Structures are given as structure tokens and as C-alpha cells.
Amino acid sequence: MTTTAPTTTSPTRMGFFTDTSICIGCKACEVACKEWNNVPEDGLNFLGTSYDNTGGLSADTWRHVAFIEQKVAAPSTGPELDPQAPAQAGDSGVRWLMSSDVCKHCTHAACLDVCPTGALFRTEFDTVVVQQDVCNGCGYCVPACPFGVIDKREADGRVWKCTLCYDRLKSDLEPACAKACPTQSIQFGPLDELRERAANRVGVLREAGVADAHLYGADETDGVGGFGAFFLLLDKPEVYGLPPDPVVTTRDLPQMWKAAAGAAAALFGTVAAACLRRR
Amino acid sequence: MTDPGGRSQQQSGANGQNGQDGYYGRPVLKRPVWRGYIATYFFTGGLAGASSTLALGARLSGHHRLARSAMLTSLAGMAVSGPLLVADLGKPGRFANMLRVAKPTSPMSVGSWVLTAFAPAAAVAAASDVTGLLPGLGAAGAAVAGILGPAVATYTAVLVADTAIPAWHGAGKELPFLFAGSAAASAGGVAMVLTPVAEAGPARRMAAIAGAIEIAAFRKMEAALGDAGKPYKTGKAGRLARAAEACTATGAILGLAAGRRHRCAAVAAGSLVAAGSLLTRFAVYRAGFESADDPTATIAPQRERVDASGRTV
């Protein structure tokens, strides 16, 4: 069931292209998002894993920078001062993968599909946003999201996630995270333009020897119909905590309803068998 | 320039070996924010739904004493279910927003509308039966509630299956039968407790048949899920599942063996079957949380799909 597919009447689908190959892990996006959207503090935690004490996206974190520290063979020759550059065999070293995660604003959005109140809706920019004056905090969207993005703010009772700065977009401003990003790792724009730019970037990186550079979420034939906010990654998605083959849960809903119809018939049959048998 | 052959060495690192445990072992999915109210509702709602169908069957087959106790059970189940559902909302005052739209893509929306039709029908049927007033309206209510009962009992299975959680989503074909069997078993069990043995024949048979369906569906679900079904076998959910099966099987057998002669045995047997049904729902509920918390449960089957499809990443 894909009733949430963007309408063709929308002017232009807007989105993010997050190019993790030039992310420097500054977290300006996290801060800018919090400030602009007045997102509450979500704990001063020490996770003891990396330069990341936020952990992941939540009701109170709408941009999250992941830090992945990998042992690699360090480059021994040549001009490769680029920390992202692939390694030569022999020496030992480290490479950092840094990636700013965000709501994917799926083409087929499970959160929106399962929302019983219509609080989650698709905007004129083809983004997915919660209407906070409608959400009644049923929480169904939370386990429906294949990326674990949307979550409930316990003190408030409602669910929250990235709005792709809906208010800024309405005023012809770019989202706060993209505006604050000092390296243009986060790029905002019309989705078709971003996809073209991203494909070129992958070509450049591969030519430079970064063989694992690939796009995540740019394919319209994937399980969620492509992301409105997609990524260039340098390792497998799961290394960043992203599901490698996400599928909108409602894709299988027709079969589930069919099974429920069969089960309902079985319940009728059970009652009939129990009642009609002569004592 | 650089040697792409050296890339395989980059697969190992501080962050797991190859990503099967995700980002520092953190869950990919968010666990549900529902509380125990919802698992309890799965039981009370199922009991209410199946009881109204039993009441209709008993009414049509001339078991009037049984029909009354089943109808009252249905009403009681609904009376508890409503507050449970509202109490679990983050904004309970906005419960009426459930009827703001009607969405077939949302089992919760479908369920809200079904309950909106079901609850008044069950109330009218029970009230008419007890007071003897408006028998025509009561019969209509009993018919509506009896026909909608199986929908009330099974939509909750679709509701949990329609999530990204592997132990729930992967059981989309089995969970409705499990919930239907569990609901019917509980309706039969409670009716055995509340009805004199001479009138309770259909309840005993229903508890036994539905209990068998419940146990068979649970096992079929575990087999269908494969690795994703691990939470149903281990830990707290596994313990709940084993206790559920023991209660249901013991109660069903005891009911068939002695429920016809001894009221005490019937009460014990019916209670056991109903307890088994409640434990089944808590096992399913709990397993979903454990499944959501396990990054490998989410990642491993998806990685297999990607590798099998020949895609590169």
C-alpha cells in the first residue's frame, strides 16, 4: 500500500544530500537544528564509545553525527593527507567515518502510513512532518519507522522528528543544518538536482580511488521508494547504524489484512463448530 | 595512486567487525513506546470480540444462559479496553483524534472505527438481554457485535505486524491466526467460568478448539520467523510463551475431561485457558521489544537480501 507517494501536483520535491566524505564531525548541524527548532536538551551522557555522546536520532535529536573509528593500513606515500583516503597495505593507521544522520523523508513513509490521526502529513515540498496540534501520542509511528528516527518526547507525550525546517522552507530559507554546515557536507535543494550532483561526486571519488563510495537512498526502486534525504557513504550502511535494505512496513499490509480475514473466518468457524454440535 | 585491494582491511575496526551489530551495538529501530496497557488491551479486546461472536452463536443455537454470560463478558472486556487505550496515549485528551480520519494503511485507524461500531452494539445487546427491554434492538446489537467480533479480535495482530520490528513484521501471516485463536480460547474459557456446566458445552468446545489453534499458530509463527523468532524462545518473552502454552494446553484438556461434570473443574479449566491467552499476548508484546533492541535482527536479513540481489553495498 503506497498511498503516501508524493503527489504529482507538488511543485518541486526538496531534500538533503549528505555527503559524508567531507563531513568533519563538527556537529554544527546538531547545534543549529537544536537552536532553530528549540529542541530540548536530551541528557549530558557519556557513552564511552567515540566522540559521540548523543548516540542516535531521537525525539530530541533531529541531526546526529556518527563517529566511526576504523583500523586501516595508513598511506605511506603520495600526497594523500586526506583522512578519508583509502589505505596502502603495510602500515597501521586509523580512518574516521563521520556522518550526519537525519530523517530520510521517505517517498513511501511508514510513519505517515500508520498514523491514525493524520498528524503526520506530506507537505508541499514532499517532506514528512508531524502536526503537533493533532498528534495524540499513540506512538504507532515509532516502531513503524525502518530507520528508528521518530520517537516520543516523554515529558510532552507527542512524537517529534526532523521537519526539514518546514517553517524556514516556507520563507525561502534553507534548513538550519545545511545553512550551518561549514563543508557543504549537508546540501539542500531540489531532489533531482541533488541526485545528479551526488552521482557526479561518487564518480569523482571512485576515480580518485575511493572504491567504496556509494549513494544510500538515491534509488527510487528501493523498499521505501527512495529517500528525500539521501547520503553518500564510504562503507556499508549498517556500519553507520543504517539499515542496508529498508522496506516500508505497509508494503506487506495487504497480505496481513488477507491473513486477518482468514483468521476471522476461522473464528466464525470455531464458534459455529462449538455451538452447532449436538450435545 | 592507491590500492583498492587494501580496502578489505578496512572492514574491521573498533565499531564491530562488519557492521552486523550496527553502530556500536545500538539498535537500528526504536522500541515501541507503548506500556503494558496495550498488551493487556490485546487480551481484553480479543476477549470482548470473540465473546460477542460466541454470544451470537449461543443465541442462535438456543443456549440462552451462555449467550447472556458471553455478552456480558464482551461488554466488560470493552469497558476495560477503552480506558486502557486512552491511558496509553501521550495526549489522552486527544483520543477523539483517532476518528479524525479513516486510513486503511493504518490498522490503528481501522481498529478505532471498528471499535466505534462494536462497543455501542455490544452495550445495547448486553443491556437489552439483562433488562428485557427493546428485544429487537438488542438482537440487532448482538448481531452487529457478533459479526464485528472477529475483526476486533484480529486487527490488533495486523497492528503489531505492520511495524518494522522483525519478530512482529515477519509473522504477518501467522499473528492474525494466533490472536484469533487466543481470543476465542479466552472467550470460551471465561464463559466456562461464568456458565453452569449444563449450558456451557459450546464454551468448552470453543476453548479446546481455539486453544489448539492458538498453540499451533504460535509454533507455526516461530517456524516461519526463523532467526527473527529468537525472542519467542529465549528470555522473558520465551518464558511467557512457555507458560502460555502450558496453561492453555492444561486448561483445554482439563475442560474436555472434567468440565462437563464438575463446576470446579470447569472454573479451573476456563481460568487456565484464559490465563494462557493473556500470557500469549504478553509474550508477543515482549518479544517485539526484544527484537527491536537487537540491531543484528534488523541488519542481518537485510544484508542477506542485498548480497543475494547482487547489489554492491
* Largest beta sheet: strand ordering of chain A: 8-1-10-9
Order of helices and strands of chain A, N to C?
A: EHEEHEEHEEHHEHEEH
As an assembly, this protein is: heterodimer
Q: Rounded to an integer, what's the Rg of chain B over CA atoms?
A: 23 Å
Helix fraction of chain A by DSSP (H/I, runs of at least 4): 25-40%
Name the beta content range of chain B: under 5%
Ranges of chain A with pLDDT <50 over ≥5 residues? none
**N-to-C SSE string of chain B, H for helix and E for strand:** HHHHHHHHHHH
Q: Identify the most extensive interface between protein chains.
A: A-B, 100 and 104 residues
Q: How many individual helices of chain B?
A: 11
Q: Distance between the terminal alpha carbons of chain B, to the nearest Å?
A: 23 Å
Arithmetic mean pLDDT of chain B = 94
| Secondary structure: number of strands of chain A | 10
Helix segment count of chain A?
7
